[in-house]
Write a structure and sequence with these properties.
The complex is a heterodimer of chains A (329) and B (220). With 329 residues, chain A is an alpha+beta fold. Helices cover 67% and strands 7% of the residues of chain A. Chain A has 10 helices and 4 strands. The longest helix of chain A is centred in the last third of the chain and has 44 residues. Chain B is α/β, with parallel strands linked by helices and 220 residues long. In chain B, the strands form 2 sheets. In chain B, strands 6-7-8-3-9 form a 5-stranded parallel β-sheet, sandwiched between helices. Classes of the chains: A alpha+beta (329), B alpha/beta (220). Chains A and B meet through α1 and α8 of A and α2 and α3 of B.
Chain lengths: 329, 220
């Protein structure tokens, strides 16, 4: 007990020093994880209130993000939203319609074409409108064959003049009676979505700050409740790092679990929307499907929320540690 | 017994921000393995002297040297490690009331990241030493004042410190218990631990037959 020891940092200069140190480090991490999870578990009310606050704050930007992403997918090339319809002259046969579709497809601006035969159109019309009886009184099918074009949005150009030009070229086919273009809305949608993306970014930044403050405040209260403990641990040789650790884990869990909860909220909201949206897209003859939260987004949300929790806790603890460098008993 | 100097005060002054002068020009030398009592009236600076050693306060003037090195040379990040060499015992033992006796005593070992099996062994040994081997699962509120004080002592010695600093450790206890606790300190001193005890209980201090340091209140 009385042998000469250095004043501080007794460091045995053994070869397995590193091993010993990493074991100590692991023990301390395990301790802090255990401890912080227990704190959450045994303070369920305050933990849940915080988690719900975080979840709500995160679910708004997350759901907006999902929405914008979904709308963007409408304007992508590979999304087969029929946007140009060629109504063919009544005399044009199905075979001719198919030939024309093949011909149009060779245009550089065209991604794909499909033919909707008059019989098919009639069936669809019956199914959707329920006016089958009325149509029957007409005796013969009044609907023409239609070639539906899905253009390559990127090659089409963006101005009205470009569209007009393309439309004129399509009209030159002798089978074509009329060209109906539904592209303007996509181009406007793109512009709107660009604005929406910015708005999402702003909202996300504001609500991220909220999460930071919520976690920071929760951890601050936790510190307040455990001041005695911190003083005692300091007195018996705890480093700042040791004192900080359980609080950082506490913040991390709040962020992470809050993130999980917000994903749950958004997924439930999407389930709620999926049916009406799919019905709507069917009415537009689109194979658009409301996409849920994919794995990338899930990981993004969890990483961001856990990170915010960690940073919030860090700020709260560091502020406290700065203020209380010297213990006054 | 070795005569190596472990603690040295060189012209130490301590004035608190409130203007109160707690220590005036203190010079003293304590050898490793000594057991010393610090007495004096309340307000004479007994607590301050111990706090200066544990770096809970800094001197306004002068130097406190441990093993020949001034504490003022210690960097902030070295302080925790230095404190692990000290077992500090308060009049109020500062236990954590939401943890049982075992967990309270285990704290210094948890801080140094000791494996769980070693912790169990060391904590049980320390609690046996202070006669609380059967109360490991009790919570502080279930214990008497004397038992709590002994938990505080167990926590102070579990890390095998080279110095024990005790500030009025028997202040709240009946004489018999006080004697008991002093005896426990003497046992630690027997195995070579330097022990400093601040106490105003002159009778008790005299009976222990150790070196006594008397602090006088400064009037300026």
């Amino acid at each position: 007990m009385t042998e000469k020891r250095p004043l501080a940092k007794p460091r045995p200069a053994t070869s397995n020093n590193f091993g010993r140190k990493s074991r100590v480090w692991l023990n301390q991490q395990k301790q802090a994880i255990d401890f912080s999870l227990k704190r959450l578990w045994f303070n369920p009310i305050s933990a849940w209130i915080t988690l719900i606050a975080i979840a709500l704050a995160l679910s708004l930007p997350t759901s907006m993000h999902v929405l914008v992403k979904n709308l963007q997918s409408l304007t992508h090339n590979n999304q087969s939203v029929p946007t140009i319809s060629l109504f063919l002259k009544p005399k044009v046969t199905e075979q001719q319609a198919n030939d024309l579709a093949e011909l149009v497809k060779s245009q550089p601006e065209v991604l794909s074409t499909t033919v909707v035969t008059r019989d098919q159109a009639l069936q669809d019309f019956n199914k959707i409108s329920g006016l089958a009886d009325t149509l029957k009184t007409l005796g013969e099918n009044p609907l023409p064959n239609i070639v539906v074009i899905t253009p390559k949005m990127n090659d089409l150009g963006v101005t009205d003049a470009d569209l007009e030009d393309f439309s004129k070229r399509l009209k030159t086919y002798k089978e074509v009676e009329d060209v109906q273009i539904d592209i303007e809305w996509i181009q406007r949608l793109r512009a709107i979505l660009q604005i929406a993306e910015r708005i999402v970014a702003v909202v996300a930044a504001l609500l991220a700050t909220t999460v930071l403050l919520v976690v920071g405040n929760t951890i601050r209260l936790d510190i307040e409740n455990r001041k005695d403990e911190i003083r005692v641990t300091r007195l018996i040789g705890a480093t700042n790092r040791y004192i900080r650790r359980p609080f950082l884990y506490g913040g991390l869990w709040l962020g992470l679990f809050g993130g999980f909860l917000s994903l749950l909220v958004v997924n439930i909201a999407l389930l709620f929307l999926v049916d009406p949206v799919n019905k709507l897209s069917m009415l537009y003859g689109s194979d658009f499907n409301l996409g849920g939260i994919d794995l990338t987004t899930t990981l993004e949300v969890l990483t961001v929320s856990a990170g915010l929790g960690l940073v919030g806790a860090w700020l709260a603890v560091n502020r406290y540690l700065w203020e209380s460098e010297v213990i006054n008993d | 017994m070795t005569t190596k100097t472990i603690i040295e005060f060189r012209q130490v002054h301590k004035r608190y921000p409130t203007g109160q002068l707690a220590l005036y020009n203190v010079n003293l030398t304590i050898h490793a393995g000594e057991m010393i009592f610090i007495t004096g009236n309340s307000g004479a600076g007994k607590s301050t002297l111990l706090k200066l050693i544990a770096l809970l306060e800094n001197p306004s003037k002068g130097d406190v040297l441990i093993d020949g090195t001034p504490l003022s040379h210690l960097q902030a990040r070295q302080i925790p490690n230095y404190r692990r060499r000290i077992g500090f015992i308060f009049q109020d033992p500062h236990l954590l009331y939401d943890r049982n006796v075992f967990d309270n005593v285990a704290m210094p070992l948890l801080i140094s990241g000791m494996p769980a099996t070693d912790i169990t062994r060391r904590v049980n040994a320390a609690l046996d030493k202070v006669g609380l081997g059967k109360k490991t699962k009790s919570y502080p509120l279930m214990l008497s004042a004397g038992e709590r004080q002994r938990v505080g002592i167990a926590r102070a010695v579990v890390n095998r410190p080279t110095m024990i600093l005790a500030d009025e450790p028997t202040g709240n206890l009946d004489p018999e218990l006080a004697q008991d606790i002093m005896h426990t300190f003497a046992q630690f001193n027997d195995i070579g631990v330097t022990v400093l005890i601040a106490s105003h209980d002159h009778g008790l201090v005299e009976r222990m037959k150790k070196r006594i340091l008397v602090l006088q209140r400064v009037e300026l």
